[in-house]
Specification:
Blueprint (H helix, E strand, L loop, with lengths): L15 E7 L3 E2 L4 E2 L12 E6 L5 H11 L5 E8 L1 H10 L6 E5 L2 E2 L2 E2 L17 E6 L10 H11 L3 E4 L2
Antiparallel strand pairs: 1-4, 1-5, 2-3, 4-9, 5-10, 6-9, 7-8
Length: 163
Amino acid sequence: MQMHLIPEHIDGEEPCVRCILHPMMYSESKQKFRREALLPPPNRNDVSLLRLNYTTIDFCAEHGKSIAKENVHYVGLVSITRNDVLSVNREQKDCVSADIVYGPMHQDKYVLDRPVYVDDPSVDLPMHADLKYNKALEAGEVRTLMRLYADKLMKKIRIISMP
């Protein structure tokens, strides 16, 4: 069996998938995605994505279901590309910017010290990437500029699947 190396460079048109959870990222009453789907949690600057070129829609959906918790359930998948993010960076005239970066993970830790292959049994999420913001905001810090940035990004997402 031939193993395929996951490249560190993420092409501009490569689809990256975000698993959408309700109620944090989707309003069922309004049938609308929330900008929180593309905002990092407090004290962090990263939003988890899966690189679709190195996995399947079915895997992404199962992963979304696996991260759901009590009172939080999986509702679907959306995608965004690096070019989408970079175009918002060009539109945005303030200090907030982001990029999609390589970030394979195993047991919630990055695996960046060696090449990672699609079928690597020692890596849980070889296809993992991050929407990485240029800074993290501390809990309680006003997130207005990040919210405005995420609002613009939300206009770029593409729906892959919704149950």
